[in-house]
Amino acid sequence: MQKIISILVEDKPGVLMRIAGLFYRRGFNIDALSVGNTEIPGKSRFTITVNGDEAVLEQVRKQVQKLVNVHRTAEHDMDNSQLREYALIKIHFTEGTKTEILHLVDFFGGRVIDIFEGTAIVEIAEEQSRIDLLFARLEPYGILESLRTGKVSMFRGNRSLNQPPKLIKVSG
Amino acid sequence: MSPKRKKRMTGARILYNVLMEEGVDVIFGYPGGANLPFYDVLCDSNIRHILVRHEQAAAHMADGYARASGRVGVCLATSGPGATNLVTGIATAYLDSSPIVAITGQVERRFIGTDAFQEVDIVGITIPITKHNQHIMTAGEIVPAVKTAFWLAKAGRPGPVLLDIPRDVLLEEAVYDPDVVVTLEGYNPIISGHSGQIKRAAKLLSGAKNPVIVAGGGVIRSGATDELIRLSQLLGAPVLTTLMGKSAVPPDYPYYLGMIGMHGTSRAMEAVKRADVIVAAGARFGDRAVLSYDAFEKMAKFIQIDIDPAEIEKTVEVDIPIVGDAGKILEELNNRLEKDHANDITAKPPPTGELERYEQTETMGIPAAIELLSKKNLDAVVTTDVGRHQIWAAKYYQSTGLDTGMFITSGGLGTMGFGLPASLGAKVARPDKRVILITGDGSFMMNIQELATSSHYDLPVLVLLMNDHHLGMIRQLQDAFYDAKYMACEFPENVDFVAAARAMGLDGRRVTSIDQLDDAIEEGLRSKHTFVVECLIDSQENIPYRTYED
Ligand SMILES: Cc1ncc(C[n+]2csc(CCOP(=O)(O)OP(=O)(O)O)c2C)c(N)n1
Fold first, then answer.
1. Coil, helix or strand for B461?
2. Residue bearing the CA closest to ligand 1, atom 11
3. Half-sphere exposure of residue B523: CA atoms within 13 angstroms, side-chain side
4. Close Cβ partners of B203 (under 8 Å, ≥ 6 residues apart)
5. Whole-angstrom Cα distance, residue B523 to residue B420?
6. Average of per-residue pLDDT across B58-63
7. Exposed, middle or buried, B549 (CB in 10 Å: 0-12/13-18/19+)?
8. Distance from the CA of B85 to the CA of which of B41, B76, B94, B258 falls in 20 to 30 A?
9. Is any atom of ligand 1 closer than 6 Å to the C-beta of B472?
């Protein structure tokens, strides 16, 4: 079963290694990973998409939660969150196919962001299934290169990963 | 805050000062280029330094010190090989949840990542075997990093923390501010248990016909012995321990039935099989203790008490998990039982029968020697190495002088070579106590050089060395699972361990029959120095395996 896990971390070197190591130890292949800054200085947010046994994954999540540099973890699903992916697709076009392609891209909510030497770069930020569909439709025209970022997610409503921090005094 | 205390000084001096603030009185260490600036400060200081003969031993000594004292043990090594030599000791402490702080020297900052002389990425190497580790990249970070390390080593589930400090950070100056406030955001151990869960547990227990308590190492780390015994008495429930839980209850406690698991006692196994509710306190349901996860889960209802949420249901599905400190939770559980269920429970009388003893005491076998030692009821800390002698010791060392937590063994990692350095660390921690090491010829050889450390600092331990000229446990495994085809488990009789002890400034005696043993032990007990009683074992008796079908 697929899980989407958000992890709020202290932005320190090695955090990725610590987190990835825990998934690796239990034999999980991380399907997708995205990392970036948040609105809080010094904090980054990971979104990890991973498939596997639910009980073991829960155990790994608890292990991740124990890391000193990890401030919070949470799990997302279709019901509680908005899930998005981003993709870039480079595609061949000819005078004959140009209009069709532009039409398709437009229909699925994508955008052409570059045209050069008979190729176009298409971007799309959508749910996974819509991106899958766009890929399927564009396939016959010849995809030269593509990439997907993997999911990012945010809870609907008031729920936030960035609740006010709870500080534990170590000394002083 | 006293601004007077703020002063500029070198990183090495800051490190020394903050260690003093943390109450460190001893460091087990070994010098090298990268940590020499710190040795320069240690030279005329109030912290005792024990120069080990191998860094692995420094980590085990810090571990033994921590287990025997309940305080954080500190070890120190240089960069590169010094640091990698600590790895086995750090992993040992990690798997047995022992609080140590390891400090490693590192090459100068500008050389990090260049494969410079004696550079290894020890932080990368030790990520999976520490609770936390970190590079200290400026002298200004030393105080918060050290304070955090000492706090983390003991907070929640204890464990090792490693700090890696480049040589030039030790040499650069920064302001030393001992009053700086250090906070952590991520790590927040849960101490008191969820009251709803405790209520449910009390209800389940009050209706139980045959409740059984299994104590693990967490009971020792939490100091939960008294509350555990109170629970056992409230219910009249037998107490069993895992290997790490040995010495969590006194050997003569009437409800104590010995160890569960692969090499447990038959009475303990019987109790597990009869149980309808099993309370596991600070025990992580390891594979050696549980034997068969399928069979185990079907046997009873489980209440699992553990301070580490990641241990809950890691291996066994439980009915009532309670996260928190074992002592606190047991106390609340006991209060609840007394308050809400006083009329539901009638405590059962203590089980009849004696603790399992070893009967054939005529041949010079390992269990016979341990039985003899145990019967002396010495007041002592006992450490072991790893192998058949370790399991025999866990089974038959039942001295009434064994205090809580004072059976010190490498249960999780099973590290041969742990025993001698751990016993020396324990002796440093408890100079008032007698320390006895029960070891095998294979294990003893793995850190035998520490006899020199023992004579150097006059750290006396009594060594009971079971020399069967075998890696006995390996022989047993080949007996049981490889058609008795023996390979790489026998040693020639080419080592005279007593002579080795003498060569390092100590003494000992070789014993060839069981009727000489008591005399030799007495001589060892009289000796003011480490004394090696080398028992020439002439039996290859296997430890019985337990199954639930027995
Ligand atoms: C460092 C290390 N290497 C290998 C092993 C595997 N091993 C477990 S028990 C054992 C034999 C121990 O022999 P000895 O210390 O003589 O004790 P005995 O079993 O004979 O009592 C070995 C090799 C281990 N536990 N630790």
1. coil
2. B471
3. 15
4. B340, B341
5. 19
6. 98
7. exposed
8. B41
9. yes
CB atoms within 10 A of CB A169: 10
For ligand 1, say whether the CB of B491 is within 6 Å of any of its atoms: no
Are the C-beta atoms of residues B88 and B410 closer than 8 Å to each other? no
Contacts of A21 in chain B (CB under 8 A): 127-128
Tell me the pLDDT of chain A averaged across its residues.
93
Question: Which of B184, B188, B314, B323 is the best mutation test for A, with the most CBs of A within 10 A?
Answer: B184
Query: B112 at the A interface (CB within 8 A)?
Result: no
In the numeric block, which tokens belong to residue A37?
């800054």
Element holding B88 (H helix, E strand) = helix B81-95
Tokens 């939490």, located at residue: B222
Q: CA-CA distance, B133 to B162, in Å (whole number)?
A: 5
Q: Please say whether the beta carbons of B244 and B216 come within 8 A.
A: yes
Query: Greatest CA span in chain B, whole angstroms?
Result: 73
E strand residue ranges, B337-448: 380-384, 407-408, 434-440
Sheet hosting strand B73-77, strand order edge to edge: B48-51, B26-29, B73-77, B100-106, B161-166, B132-135
Residue bearing tokens 């015994």: B229
- Summarize pLDDT for B277-309 with one digit per residue, the tens: 999 999 988 888 887 888 877 889 999 999 999
The string of DSSP letters for B217-278 reads HHHHHHT-HHHHHHHHHHHT--EEE-TTTTTSS-TT-TTEEEE-STT--HHHHHHHHH-SEE
Nearest CA in chain A to B22: A171
Interatomic CA distance for residues B486 and B540, integer angstroms: 13
- pLDDT for the residue numbered B355: 85
Mind listing the pLDDT tens digit for each residue in B39-55? 999 998 999 999 999 99
